[in-house]
Amino acid sequence: MTPSSTTDRPASPAVSIPFDALDVAKRFGTPTWVYDAATLERRVAELTRPGVTVRYAQKANSSLALLSLMRKLGVVVDAVTEGEIRRGLKVGYEPSEIVYTADLFDDAALDTIRTHGCPVNVGSPDMIAQLGDAGLSHIPVTLRLNPGFGHGHSQKVNTGGTSSKHGIWHTQIADCIALGKKHGVRIRGLHMHIGSGADFEHLAQVGDAMVDAVQAYVDAGGPGLDLVSTGGGLPIPYRKDAEHYHRLDLDRFFAVWGEAHERIKQIAGDQVELEVEPGRYLVAECGYLVTKVRSTKVQGAGDDAKDFLLIDAGFNDLLRPAMYGAYHHLSVVPADGRALGDELDYVVAGPLCESCDVFTQAEGGFVETRRLPEARPGDLVVIHDAGAYGAAMSSNYNSRYAAAEVLNHGGELHLTRQRQTFEQLVENERVPDGL
Ligand code: LLP
What we know:
This protein is α/β, with parallel strands linked by helices.
């Protein structure tokens, strides 16, 4: 189709690639995840406030290299599985710095908690009894509450309300205190994570809900509280165009929680500490997925025709667009160093044998186009803000190998995860004799 001029396009704030993408492609191949340490450090510094503990929700990206960096920067972690607990231990966290937050225990998690003594944030009342029955009543416990309402950038990430499996229903606080007393389990804090992408109206509601929960807890004779946790959900500016670009006002965020915290201290005492638990905010923007254009083609003819840009990463690598219709900014990097040319409306799609393997789609699977500089096979497409829920949610679908991971640190690119090989892909499989 015919390229058109770019002059009417709004300016894009804050779009940069802080490394040489062509060098990445040459040295490590494509697709490759690149994490920029300086960006991560900046995000940690922004969230580091006096008297507030920053706990990283490592489900967003549990790369050992990033976890090590977090530890160096004084950030503690959460874990939702035994595997995540062990990742935390492997990079040197003390067990007391790793909180297991989940709505259930499996055997492996209980065994590891028994061995190491990590604190637990229980998301279901049964977990209190199970800790007691397992002889683990000495484990420090917080209650993850479902305040009865939720929020999310997609219905699929809404964590509150009656349709959510997460957390303990807010009216069951007294029952949990009674369960704790019965099983000798000491509750020491309350936690709420209402969903990803909170706005201030919702945030104030969550602050109020937390104050109400603390009041209900004290009224029901709960043991002394040491901490309240706000959960995560801090949004990042995935959209870069001037009209949609919006960076969270952190001072306002901390003002809302600071005010709730003051009210909580008046109810439950000055010893109650405040904790925040972001995943995305800390790592999304430091991550880039470097991919290569392998083919361009036009489907159809005339006004209905669509230009396709086929790249070598699929939803097995970055699931968010296919799963939630999530938006990720895309940059084209010409392989031959030529200046970027006129723009086309492209559908950007991957290699999987599946129609929804498309990076430009809205929620519900509706394929959209993205205005991008004309690209040719061999050029790179860099997918931005891919550090959170990118590699962490990737799979081996279509027998594709987990992509390489690289850390841009101290002016150098360090390979932090080798591209998976075919042998590693099949190493746990067995073919029964005689087949
Ligand atoms: N704390 C708890 C208990 C959580 O369940 C989560 C996220 C977080 C903290 C961190 O939320 P964040 O700050 O990263 O929004 N895969 C989805 C997001 C799922 C979030 C799951 N829980 C996505 O790609 O948007």
